[in-house]
Specification:
The protein is α/β, with parallel strands linked by helices. It is 43% helix and 17% strand. The chain has 14 helices and 12 strands. The protein has helices at residues 8-14, 16-24, 42-47, 58-75, 84-87, 110-119, 137-141, 160-179, 184-195, 197-205, 208-215, 233-247, 283-295, 330-349; strands at residues 28-29, 32-33, 51-56, 79-83, 98-104, 126-131, 144-147, 223-228, 250-255, 273-277, 300-305, 317-322. The strands form 3 sheets. The chain has a 5-stranded parallel sheet, sandwiched between helices. Strands 9-8-10-11-12 form a 5-stranded parallel sheet, with helices on both faces. A two-stranded antiparallel sheet has the order 1-2. α10 (197-205) packs parallel to α14 (330-349). The radius of gyration is 20 Å and the shape is globular. It binds 5-amino-5-deoxy-1-O-phosphono-D-mannitol (M6R). Residues 57-60, 104-106, 109, 112, 156-158, 241, 245, 362-363 line the site of 5-amino-5-deoxy-1-O-phosphono-D-mannitol. The active site is at 361 (for fru-6p isomerization activity). It catalyses: D-fructose 6-phosphate + L-glutamine = D-glucosamine 6-phosphate + L-glutamate. Its EC number is 2.6.1.16. One of its GO terms (biological process) is UDP-N-acetylglucosamine metabolic process.
Length: 366
């Protein structure tokens, strides 16, 4: 039931604090990840992992891309992330000790399921499913599983499935990192961040009134560019996917450093640029990318971490401050305004938000 909400998508966006809390429930304590949350023998198998191949489609693929940044940084294991429709038809090299990870909300996406079946032939250490539907094919066929507990997602545009996938991948990251000797204080800090993910998402949802105002700026646009760096690059990709999926505005995401290698040619006063700018070592780099946009008259919408010092004199544009909740969980928290922006632009444009044209909730055909 939609209840007080206008669309399922909006309801599902606002369910995220609960959905993420449920996904973390009884799996992590302030001392760290609890034993064997991936199923019987899971921790033993994970201890042997030397690298990961993460396979998924659409939004679930974006969750995998965030996890690559996390796992490589904290567990120091190599991670490849690939869309299932490519992976299944090419001869991927599988080094010894590689774990195959499938991410899927539905667990029935044809390409993801076929990729998982194909992986059996390719000599993996084992398979792990991160999925929202316990009785789905992907879950049934995996060795290890970690269920997201988002509850049914009705809106075709995936929202709470994504943030719960990030919560689950956060647990996987912590387990792998701990087993590989991550510094105790850092492990405690990352654990605390993950435990705060629900409350930080809750706070981000309070931005809705500001985002409704901002969405006016996009309704008559044909195109939009999304920028991020590091683990926020996949968040920019997810923002662009949401916007194009439900508002039918053409949107593309770039790693901000790629701007001058091509897309800058598109930037003029008709091209809004949406940037995710959390705190951290890449902030200065991102600021100089944004300066390039500003110099060309492009309109900037910047979502900035509360502590980040941004130049407040954006001639055309807005800086919206929020609290990312720390370097680890910031990608999940910054996703929320991307979802709200896409949602409200689509509502203003009068599209069928929950059932966008040409799309199906579960892509069970190739
Ligand atoms: O059920 P899955 O997670 O396997 O679905 C994958 C994609 O089809 C899905 O994320 C799609 O991209 C969404 N409509 C995005 O909002």
């Amino acid at each position: 039931e939609r209840g007080e909400y206008r669309h399922y998508m909006q309801k599902e966006i606002f369910e995220q604090p609960r959905a993420v809390a449920d996904t973390l429930e009884a799996r992590i304590s302030p001392n760290g990840v609890l034993p064997n949350i991936f199923g019987v023998g899971g921790d033993e198998l994970l201890a042997k992992v030397k690298g990961l191949h993460i396979i998924a489609c659409g939004t679930s693929y974006h969750a995998g891309l965030v996890a690559k940044y996390w796992i490589e940084e904290y567990a120091r294991l190599p991670v490849n992330v690939e869309v299932a429709s490519e992976y299944r038809y090419r001869e991927a090299v599988v080094p010894d000790g590689t774990l195959f990870v499938a991410i899927s909300q539905s667990g029935e996406t044809a390409d993801t399921l076929a990729a998982m079946r194909e992986s059996r032939r390719r000599g993996y250490l084992g398979t792990l499913a991160i999925c929202n539907v316990p009785e789905s094919s992907v879950v049934r066929e995996a060795d290890l599983k970690l269920m997201t507990r988002a509850g049914p997602e009705i809106g075709v545009a995936s929202t709470k499935a994504f943030t719960t996938q990030l919560a689950a991948l956060g647990l996987l990251t912590l387990q792998l990192a701990h087993q590989r000797g991550l510094d105790g204080a850092r492990y405690a800090d990352l654990t605390a961040q993950l435990l705060h993910m629900p409350s930080m998402i809750e706070k981000a949802l309070e931005l809705e009134p500001r985002i409704i105002e901002l969405s006016e700026r996009l309704i008559h646009r044909q195109h939009a560019l999304f920028l991020g760096r590091g683990a926020q690059h996949p968040v920019a990709m997810e923002g662009a996917l949401k916007l194009k999926e439900i508002s039918y505005i053409h949107a593309e995401a770039y790693a901000a450093g790629e701007l001058k290698h091509g897309p800058l040619a598109l930037v003029d006063e008709d091209m809004p640029v949406i940037a995710v700018a959390p705190n951290g070592p890449l902030l200065d780099k991102l600021k100089s990318n944004l300066q390039e946009v500003r110099a060309r008259g492009g309109e900037l919408l910047v979502f900035a971490d509360g502590e980040a010092s941004m130049d407040g004199n954006a001639s055309r544009g807005v800086i919206l401050r929020m609290d990312g909740g720390g370097d680890f969980i910031a990608p999940a928290v910054f996703t929320v305004p991307m979802q709200l922006l896409a949602y409200h632009v689509a509502v203003l444009r009068g599209t069928d938000v929950d059932q966008p044209r040409n799309l199906a909730k579960s892509v069970t055909v190739e």
